[in-house]
Amino acid sequence: MKIIDSVAGVFCHQDFVFAVRRQSHLQAFPGYESFPGGKIDREDSPQQHPSPFLCDFDGQSIHALVREIAEELGYDLVAAISAGEVTAVKFLATALAPATAPVRFRVHFFRIDLQSRPLFELDAGEIAAGFWNRPEQLLARFRRGDALMVPPFRWVLERLQRNPADYNLGNLSPQTDETLFVPRFELLSGLMTLSVPSNTFPPEKRTNAFLLGDPQAPQVLVDPSPEAPQVFERLVRTLEADDLAAIFLTHHHHDHHEFAPELAKHLNIPIWLSADTLDRILQKQGKDYFSAVTVEVRQAGDCLTTWKGESVRVYSVPGHDAGQLALAPDSLRWFLVGDLIQSFGTVLISAPEGDMTDYYQTLKQIIALDPAVIIPSHGMPMRSTFRLHSTLQHRMKRENKILTMHASGKTPVEMLNSIYQGVDQRLFPFALETIKSHLRKLQQEGKI
């Protein structure tokens, strides 16, 4: 996967730092709290920057930093240095996103010390909010479950909390030996994501498993699905220190439960799932699939565990799969939606388990609930219901196109070649099923 180099400016005044919350519509890190900055462009000059404080660093990185700060904050760093507003610019840290990330950024952090706190002019296209806070205040927001943060951002804050004058923190890249362990990371406090290699639909290669539950509550593992015995062993090793109470399956597709019975046997814990999911798995895998495993049916309204002291309840979310269940705390500060959506691309809606009418209705119901963060099984958590809105709008637009093409006499295969131009041909059979699902919905509504 291509590595994208980027820069971030860590503005410091006394023991305060300036952080931003990214807009929820952005493809990368939607709604996450971070430092201002962005990717290094090819047009950024590689020449050494002539300004004091900036001339000792890699030219392209510094030119990108100056440009990004001007674009995002309306702040002229060079002019501020000349005016004596900046007292120092120092290299702070580097962090490379793990190979499991949908986009691999290598971020170069630069610390910028100021005489006072300027009133930045934020670029509303990229930044939803900006705030001067002490590191401990920002970290407290994360620990309450009110902020999305990537680990290196937190680690910078933690180091600055311990020593406000700290710099040259070195390499803050997350480190996981994938020959021994499955990567696990915490983007939302109290909800651990395990990026498990799985036999899922291309181009995806992993299914997120989730570990949640307060320390004194049942620890629940959601959708473990290692692709092979070797990955199963790595997952077991990764979970060694966790006292698991149950495995919860969101739905019946194999990339959400492969090796789950073996894991339940190994850990001597039950599997929780919907009645529909149980029936469909047994129909496909055989009646002995869950032999020697305690299987318990869960349904909408059930409480599985607690998060930050709140009950985590089950929701029914049919559409992609008739028996699919979702999870959310009572405050709706997050909503774990399984395969209802994903952060990149769209999900399959295919008969007999998929139904486009149900899918539309489920999207609308969750949008109406307005959870703060959406957590999919493929991709990363996203703040707000923006992706739900955009997914629904995208489906409606595609359905209108299908309706028009049907009226002109096009067959589903002819529609496929027109609608899905440029799509990986391995996905064509699944795309064709989605077109057929739209046609069934239109027929049910009497439109065709």
UniProtKB/TrEMBL annotation:
Domain Nudix hydrolase positions: 1-155
SUPFAM superfamilies to which the protein is assigned, alphabetical: Metallo-hydrolase/oxidoreductase (SSF56281), Nudix (SSF55811)
Domain of life: Bacteria
Protein name, per record: Glyoxylase, beta-lactamase superfamily II
Species of provenance: Desulfuromusa kysingii
Source organism phylogeny: Bacteria, Pseudomonadati, Thermodesulfobacteriota, Desulfuromonadia, Desulfuromonadales
